[in-house]
Specification:
Blueprint (H helix, E strand, L loop, with lengths): L11 H9 L5 H29 L7 H19 L1
């Protein structure tokens, strides 16, 4: 586990409200950070999805998908041995 110390410069009213809500407690901060990381990852995924959509590529056929699945499985089997 890593210990991090933060110094925040926020309005007094926000600091008071956050403290009253218990948001400065370690478990609350961990929850807030986990949610922020999850949201950032989801946002990045949507950006990538938009970029892929903009490429205007034809969809893969079931045969192409199956060939890719087979290749990944074969590579996995080879690495496990």
């Amino acid at each position: 586990m890593t210990t991090v110390q933060l110094t925040l410069n926020i309005p007094d009213s926000l600091a008071f409200a956050a403290n009253q809500a218990g948001l400065f407690k370690p478990e609350a901060m961990e929850h807030l950070l986990r949610e922020a990381v999850r949201k950032k990852a989801a946002d990045e995924l949507f950006v990538i999805a938009d970029e892929l959509t903009a490429l205007d590529m034809p969809p893969m056929t079931m045969e192409e998908i199956q060939a890719d699945v087979n290749a990944v499985r074969a590579a996995h089997r080879a690495s496990v041995r």
